[in-house]
Amino acid sequence: MLAALLEARAGHALSPERMWRIETVLHPILRERGYPSLEALVVALASEADRNLVDQVVDALINHETYFFRDHAQFLDIERVALECLRERRTRHRTLSVWSVGCSTGQEPYSLAMALAERPEHWAGWDINILATDISPSVIRTARAGRYSHFEIQRGLPTRLMLRWFEPDGSDWLLRGDIRDRVRFAEHNLLSDTLPPGPFDLILCRNMLFYLTPEHRSRAVTRLAAALAPDGLFMLGAFETMLTQGAAFAPDPEARGFYRLSAAEARPQGRLQAR
């Protein structure tokens, strides 16, 4: 029941190695709602009488793992390879559009915003737009607030950047407004919602696709290809690959570790419509 619900709503596969998480992540809902057991919760879900309960359970089952500058070596590639490559390709117009897909509580797009803010002269005169989306309303609310616990701040964020871009607020840390304003957050289901206005010069879709079923993963890849600029760059997670995901993307010859649209996809007649 829970596996079918998660796949239907989010396209995620509840793999055997993730089964142990079910009772742990759903325990707060059992306590809050007064259900005596997981079985009682499943019975309530089957009736579909409480749509808020369904949303709450799906949200809890999705893995929202993230942290600042996640996979540090890979993030350095975003700064030193992708952004510099795109800077050369966009010198004439000086515009850059980035989409962070499956952004969770916002650490990835905010890390990017901080990295750009650290080099103000390098990006002076550029119009840079960062869109960050996630299927979960709760994590988008957290991301927009830019408020993080001390534990969240310590995960991946250098002390120098913490002191420069965050202010203490009680037991939490609040991101400065000028960094928050650099990122636009929105709820979005990659599998079903209309694609956001593009095309995007850089799409970050790290550590999300491998949670999807093969069928949904294929659809997601097709839609991501439709959103990427013909000479834009696409990045997966450190342990993900496009080798088994069809021919929409190919390794970019100038930006190692990144993908670009394949020759057929990059031609105007080969681009997919956002649907």
UniProtKB/TrEMBL annotation:
<keyword id="KW-0808">Transferase</keyword>
<keyword id="KW-0949">S-adenosyl-L-methionine</keyword>
<feature type="domain" description="CheR-type methyltransferase">
    <location>
        <begin position="1"/>
        <end position="242"/>
    </location>
</feature>
<protein>
    <submittedName>
        <fullName>Protein-glutamate O-methyltransferase CheR</fullName>
    </submittedName>
</protein>
<dbReference type="Pfam" id="PF01739">
    <property type="entry name" value="CheR"/>
</dbReference>
<dbReference type="InterPro" id="IPR022642">
    <property type="entry name" value="CheR_C"/>
</dbReference>
<dbReference type="InterPro" id="IPR000780">
    <property type="entry name" value="CheR_MeTrfase"/>
</dbReference>
<dbReference type="GO" id="GO:0008757">
    <property type="term" value="F:S-adenosylmethionine-dependent methyltransferase activity"/>
</dbReference>
<dbReference type="InterPro" id="IPR050903">
    <property type="entry name" value="Bact_Chemotaxis_MeTrfase"/>
</dbReference>
<dbReference type="GO" id="GO:0032259">
    <property type="term" value="P:methylation"/>
</dbReference>
<keyword id="KW-0489">Methyltransferase</keyword>
<dbReference type="InterPro" id="IPR029063">
    <property type="entry name" value="SAM-dependent_MTases_sf"/>
</dbReference>
